[in-house]
Amino acid sequence: MKKKLVSLLTVLSLVTILLAACGGKAKALKTTDFDNVTMGMSVKDLEKELGKPSKVIKDDKKIEELLNEDTTSFVQEMASGSKAAEKFIGDQDEEKLQDMFGDLDGATKGQVSQYKYKDEDGKEQTRNIYIVEDKVIIMSFN
User: Residues of the signal sequence (predicted)?
Assistant: First the structure.
């Protein structure tokens, strides 16, 4: 009886360890994984698409610093006619776009979800996704 109990506990321990090891691995992201992220997307849909972020930033000053860099980058992407930026914005009408960009004023009250990924050259990069009131308002394009 004691031998069976020890065997059972050993098997249960091994199964628990294996399940924990399998469940904790994050998806290795690539640049193309961000193609389906769109302005206005909910956090739930974002995490369904990309998984949990590598890091979440909620510090107002840090968000403001990042936002200054990323807004410039985003405007440059739009000005260059970037297909990725156009796809991110999607078929938003003018009023909806103004609302979304108006939400940038409150970005420091939201959060930045950072996702690590490998670019086309295999280098590790970080993509910032700004979230206000549970919706994506802007994404960096580095």
Answer: 1-20
74 contacts: CB under 8 Å, gap ≥ 6: 85, 138, 139, 140, 141
pTM score, whole prediction = 0.74
Distance of CA 2 to the CA centre of its chain: 50
pLDDT at residue 79 greater than cutoff 90? no
Question: In sequence order, which ranges of 80-122 are alpha helices (DSSP H)?
Answer: 83-89, 94-102
Q: What is the CA radius of gyration of the chain?
A: 20
Which sequence spans correspond to the domains of the chain? 27-139
* pLDDT confidence band for 113 (50 / 70 / 90): very high
Which are the contacts of 54, defined by CB distance < 8 A and separation ≥ 6? Answer: 26, 114, 115, 116, 126
